Amino acid sequence: AQRVTQPEKLLSVFKGAPVELKCNYSYSGSPELFWYVQYSRQRLQLLLRHISRESIKGFTADLNKGETSFHLKKPFAQEEDSAMYYCALSGYNNNDMRFGAGTRLTVKP
Amino acid sequence: EPEVTQTPSHQVTQMGQEVILRCVPISNHLYFYWYRQILGQKVEFLVSFYNNEISEKSEIFDDQFSVERPDGSNFTLKIRSTKLEDSAMYFCASSEKTTGELFFGEGSRLTVL
Q1: Which DSSP string corresponds to B5-61?
Q2: To pair with A53 at 20 to 30 A between CA atoms, which of A107, B67, B69, B87?
Q3: Dist. CA B31–CA A96, nearest whole Å
Q4: C-alpha distance from B56 to closest chain A C-alpha (Å)
Q5: Is A49 within 8 Å of chain B by CB?
Q6: Residue among A22, A20, A24, A21 at smallest CA distance from A3
Q7: Which residue of A has its CA nearest to B108?
């Protein structure tokens, strides 16, 4: 069974500070990992996925299979990054993507 | 930009009643999903649907739940005999391909009294 763990429910940083949102997973096969974001009063939307290996809005995430982690990082947080962030995992065919509990990031001015 | 739309945005019902939540996925998408989020809890997978049949379902998706694609555009979630614990936000999502990005609707909030 696949499982996603986001240990921090809340994370608060000051503007300009680095931020890291933690995600650990367990899955017996080859996982696909994603980060979804939900800004206030908006729908859940994809932020990035590990196979694309790109930086979106300054965020990056590296899949570490040894540590079974997919932490989301940004070197300099901005106030507009304040949102709910969900790590998600799916198996090869994506038919049952599972989400972590989410981390609410607050970036203070 | 095409979006997944869900109706109603909020429904209040009495315990024991049947509820149908409706979703219009993005038109060229082939894979459809329902998720739910009980207040303060995680987003939970309910079911995925492809080619007019369920492809995966979670342990939550028991006989109380059913999904249907009654026509070429709608994708519905039916909850029979609602219980208090069915109160949640229900999200519909669609994707173009099995390994693609999921596009979510804004959700339907169900309140069971």
Answers
A1: EEE-SEEEE-TT--EEEEEE--TT--EEEEEEE-TTS-EEEEEEEETTEEEEE-TT-
A2: A107
A3: 11
A4: 6
A5: yes
A6: A24
A7: A43
